[in-house]
Structure formats: C-alpha cells, structure tokens
Backbone:
C-alpha cells in the first residue's frame, strides 16, 4: 500500500452546505471517494490509499487538475483506490464535488 497526501489552497470554498458525500465503490476495481466539509474555506486536502505504488506524480497531477477546476475549498477528501485509471479518478472527484454542491 502507498499513502499519499496533497494539500492545496483554493481561491474560494466549494459552493453548497452538504457536510459529506461518497462516490464510487472500491470493491469494483474502481475507487471510493469520501468528501467531508471540515477544513477552512480556502483549504483542500486529498489523502490517497492505493495498492499500486510509484504513481505519485500521476496522482499529484490529477488532484491538481481537480482542484483547479472545482475549487474544492473546505474539503478533506479521502480516496481508497482499487486500481482506477486517472480519468476515472477525475470523474469520481468531480461527481463528489457536484454532490457536495447539491
């Protein structure tokens, strides 16, 4: 297992007031994403647990792209990876942000 943590500063907090959301199912060979509104409004933290090591730079790029697109200020995001591809990770992160806005 590899554990990665990425911290970002955002320009704005994520819209909405929903306290948490979950997307994906790790047992499907995909990934599970838990989003919690627990950080200051300009902070975002993404923690990744993955069985596949050596892809930290890919995770970093995917998370940075998500933060730039969604501005998920105030969120702590926990990802339990089951071997998902980068495009699936992006999709689940954006789905989670949309759920939090609803």
Residues:
């Amino acid at each position: 297992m590899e554990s990665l943590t990425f911290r970002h500063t955002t320009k704005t907090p994520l819209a909405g007031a929903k306290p948490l959301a979950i997307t994906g199912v790790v047992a499907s060979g995909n990934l599970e994403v838990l989003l919690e509104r627990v950080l200051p409004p300009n902070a975002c933290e993404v923690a990744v647990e993955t069985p596949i090591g050596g892809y930290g730079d890919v995770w970093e790029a995917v998370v940075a792209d998500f933060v730039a697109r969604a501005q998920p200020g105030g969120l702590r995001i926990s990802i339990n990876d089951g071997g998902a591809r980068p495009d699936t990770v992006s999709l689940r992160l954006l789905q989670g942000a949309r759920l939090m806005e609803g």
